[in-house]
Input
Amino acid sequence: MDIRFKFMKFRKIASLISISLFLISVLSLGLRGLSLGLDFSGGTLIEVSYESPVSLESIRDSLEDNGYPDSQVVNFGTNLDVLIKVADQSGNSTVGEQIFNILSNQETDIELKRVEFVGPQVGDELRDQGGLGMVVALFMILMYVAFRFQYKFALGAVTALAHDVVIILGLFSIFAWDFDLTVLAALLAVIGYSLNDTIVVSDRIRENFRTERVLEPVDMIDLSLNQTLGRTLVTSFTTLLVLFALFIFGGELIRGFSLALIIGVLIGTYSSIYVVANMLMSMTLTQEDLAVPEPEGADFDGMP
Amino acid sequence: MNKFSIYQYLLILAILVIGSIYALPNLYPTQPSIQVAYTDSGRSADQSLLNDLEDILENSNTEYEDIFLRENKIVIKFKDVDTQLTSKTILQNTLLDKVIIALFLEPATPQWLKDLGANPIKLGLDLSGGVHFLLEVDIETAQQGRLELLLDTYRKSFKEEKIKFDKSSIKDLKLNFEFSDNQSYNRALKRFRDDSPVINGVQYIITERPSTNILMLEYSDIALREIRDYAVGQNLTTLRNRVNELGVSEPIVQRQGSNRIVVQLPGVQDPTAAKKIIGKTANLEFRLEANTRTSPLRKEEFSFKENEFQTAFLEKAVVVSGDRVTNASTGFDESGFSQVNITLDMEGGRAIQKATSGNIGRRLGVLFVEQKTKSELVTNEQGQKVIEQTSYIEKKIISLATVQAVLGTSFRITGVGSPAEASELALLLRAGALAAPMKFVEERTVGPSLGKENIELGMKSIMIGFSLVVLFMIFYYRVFGLAANISLIINLVLITGIMSLLGASLTLPGMAGIVLTVGMAVDANVLIFSRIREELKEKDPQTAIRDGFSRAFVTIFDANVTTLITALILYVIGTGPVKGFAITLSIGIITSMFTAIMCTRAMVNLVYGNKNIQELKI
Output
């Protein structure tokens, strides 16, 4: 058998890395939490564009003088674009206009690029919906994989997904990157992507358990991982290619989104190799687990 | 071996042709145009308006490319944005507020494509620029208002029927009546019970306290739902009217959930003005003027809207409120003076009939009720200056006219001043009536320049990502890579076609979804190709191709179904732009499965199908 790379030799180290990354993430999420974007925190955000570079300090000062002492003022993309965030919890929807008026009094040549106001209860709802969506997604995937494969695979797949999601959330928490709706979308896309990988690997493990009956489980898994390695790397590579294109050229608005996906693809690739296989090893997958008749049927020729 | 039947090829070809036709409109440029409609939403644009417009444009030597009637609007196309803008000013200055003029970009889709229902992709607000508002209807206030009317009705009818009560009030959205004796208590209870049944259940929940002779009345869930639906429905209509006044070419005003309304105005240039008009929380109240017999406790003094210093006393009891107005228009009376014709709904008609029947010769006032906010700069405990907002309700008289006869569902107000003032009043009556106050709970405004910028960024990312993947595939898989690349192009065409066909909006995250699809779409082909490579070690090329495709199919299917599940969940929980991502991702998954499995196979079959190949390079 052609086992070029003995993945499972490193399974202990991989477990250690995964578990510690996971724990660090959980710890950071527990202690620091996420720096929630406007979608979830509620408040007002306003983006204006100036004709010539402007000092953020002077904007801060004039906002403070006019009743907005706690506003965040940062450059957005270029030094001509300024983003101002006010975490106002009272649900006042006119903050955006007032800030724009203050700024236009100070400097007339400015252009309003965007205003976003999210009321506190809408923010809460989006947060609850997002969390719920994540849980529902994981559950439905668990069901589907259990139905198509076997519960041990399903547990492996969902563990891998939870691993990916928690570590990405952990990184967003540690580096205090803004977590908004687009990042949540990216996270769900990561679930889809990572699962894609996981299924390809699981599929091969299942097939080999049925055809290569002489091998030990460790070798079987190593063989499957080797067989799918080429595909895993090529797909991850092309996906990363487009994601970097998006990260570099897609603009400030979807930078968080592409960042979450880039991390997700890297971690997802790793987890489909180590987390799933590791779980299967520790649950001692046997021939009997897969002895049930193949649900997908053998009638492939009918399919193009 | 490895041959498709002619039907399979035809099916693939048919899908490609249909996909391309619907993707085609996106290649045509858009043309700056304006859309003209009558301000009165009941009136459709006609040939005479078209002629008027033509005359005005010709007199001012403005060049236009085309003018035609579409639905109930007139569309005029121009060569460039400058003419579009100057024409708008010219027309508006000539026709004043008789018409509403909206700027928009008319796609230059040829007629034969339009006949097939093929239109370019709709752009989401983050790409087209515009505003998105989410408003919440304050149901409690609507309920409170209803209770006040109810309290008034019962007070009156108990007096008439000699049912004695000592106290009556509204507390915590409950009507409280304390009766003087047990007999009155029982008669009132019977009355409440008789009034309660409605078609689908009961209207009131009655709390009985026989020992203290207290009865409490609150709305049942059925009645509450009805009040809510009525208030939201009424506000929806009002908002639609207001939005029409704004002159936006494709506005969206929709109910969302139980008590929210979404308003989307693509392409609006001045979001602040739009917000002002939409957020105008105005209502109307019809009240009789107080006379000498009115007790001081039952009357209130109000000033007139156009003259702060002129005031009048009106009764406290509201006869009818503005949400009962179904229509209002202007006209002229017998002597040629302006008048406003008002139509009320059934309930409103009954109420005003009752109120006016004994009161001919008295005056009926129309109060304009506006919710306003006042901002003040105050210093807080930390010594920082902060803006404090307080909201208050302002009520002003907009009309005070003598009742000439008993009024019913339709009546008129005369002596309203100039025709312009009359039409202003009619507009306020028509559009100014909200059944319940609303507040903004979410707002997203995207300036036009940012929209354009976003399109450019999105297109650039798609182009660059696409080129990188195409180059890599050619380099890595050679002939098979070429097949995969052609599939990828077909994939993009199909995504565009399906998006256009479904009328789904493209957003910036949606474009990111397309980029992601491009990266992930090759996965199916990669799976197939690496499988063929493996099979080649043991089998001859033709068998290897066949087995490679069929074995990879199961994997591809499983992997994509799960991604589709997450995309669907994303669609359900996401709003606006994120929904756009879910849409392109879902469409992308389906089209990439089709192209990778069907199209690539077809190409491979065409190239290798009938040949006896000794060696396969992959």
